[in-house]
Write a structure and sequence with these properties.
- This protein has 12 helices and 16 strands.
- The chain is of the alpha/beta class.
- It has 2 domains: 194 residues, NAD(P)-binding Rossmann-like Domain (Rossmann fold); 114 residues, Alpha-Beta Complex (UDP-galactose 4-epimerase, domain 1), CATH 3.90.25.
- The two termini are 38 Å apart.
């Protein structure tokens, strides 16, 4: 039975990944950790929960040894728009947590999963059907961290034989955890606006296509890659994965099919506009499909049905 440590379990993906992993491997075999356990205390009610800063290598290593961990999911990161407000801090956190994960995993013979992002690409990358292997010159500190992380993880695999694996996530849409400062957050916030106020002001310009994915597909991607036969993996750090690509007016239209009175206007955020303009319209994820069977289940229509249903139920109960 695997023993898994999720570092950054209180974040957007970690807060849903942890229970997903516990459903698969058992509550006691998946250890949640975060710098602030108050933010994810519910995770401690179902299984082990440890509080530590991922930059504290000593404490990090102690937890890995304590639970005899054999797989680390490093979900620690400052996201794109937040990172631009403090690039030095973004580098310190994003790269520091990864380096500790790799060194501690090497010492304790663990595997490591660390998500990369479409943010790893830049304006010189082909925007349409972005290849798995292509030019990567990001123009954000978030993207610089992601490219550096991919290369560092590959180095640890090639140099030391450490089992490192990663996917390049698109924008992740969830009905559980609120957005945390990402450029693609509008695609989550719009559903809350539709339910609560029947309106939304979009921070990205009309016509801004971006890859997106519903959280259930994202969680499956993490597990499926980590369970994949390593002999079949030509690539490791990092696989393009996608499920859908749309621009703001398309998600607006999908919501209006269900809520006809919903309206949307635009108040473009120049920072988010610049960041989104440097990212792909849609990625080619054929390598992930061929090497480990990636196959997303959700599209814009089915996701919209589910998002509005779940958020609507929360609003009716006064939970949002």
């Amino acid at each position: 039975m695997k023993r898994i440590l999720v570092v950054g379990a209180g974040g957007q993906i970690g807060s849903e990944l942890t229970p997903h992993l516990r459903n698969i491997y058992g509550d006691s075999n998946v250890i949640a950790s975060d710098i602030n356990c108050c933010a994810c205390k519910q995770l401690g009610e179902a299984g082990p929960l440890e509080e530590f800063d991922a930059l504290d290598g000593k404490k990090f290593a102690e937890v890995v040894k304590k639970y005899k961990v054999d797989a680390i999911y490093n979900m620690v990161a400052l996201l794109s728009a937040t990172g631009e407000k403090n690039p030095q801090l973004a580098w310190k956190i994003n790269m520091g947590a990864l380096l500790n994960s790799l060194d501690i995993a090497l010492e304790n013979k663990c595997a490591v999963f660390t998500p990369s992002s479409i943010g790893a690409f830049g304006p010189s990358t082909p925007m349409d059907n972005t290849p798995q292997d292509t030019v990567m010159r990001p123009t954000t500190i978030y993207g610089v961290c992601k490219v550096s992380g991919e290369m560092l993880s590959d180095y640890y695999f090639q140099r030391f034989g450490l089992d490192t694996r990663s996917v390049r996530f698109p924008g992740i849409i969830s009905n559980v955890t609120l957005p945390g400062g990402g450029t693609t957050d509008y695609a989550v916030e719009i559903y809350y606006g539709a339910i609560k106020e029947k309106k939304f002001t979009c921070p990205l310009p009309q016509g801004t296509f971006l890859d997106m994915m519903y959280m259930p597909d994202a969680l499956n991607a993490c597990v499926d890659l980590m369970e994949a036969d390593p002999c079949k993996l030509v690539h490791r750090n990092s696989f393009n994965v996608s499920a859908m690509s749309f621009e703001p007016s398309q998600i607006m239209a999908a919501i209006q099919k269900r809520i006809p009175e919903f309206i949307m206007d635009y108040d473009v955020d120049p920072v988010k506009k610049a960041i989104s303009a440097s990212w792909p319209n849609y990625m080619d994820d054929s390598c992930a499909r061929e090497e480990w069977g990636w196959n997303p289940k959700w599209n814009l229509e089915t996701m919209t049905d589910d998002m509005l249903k779940v958020i609507g139920e929360k609003h009716a109960k006064g939970l949002i």
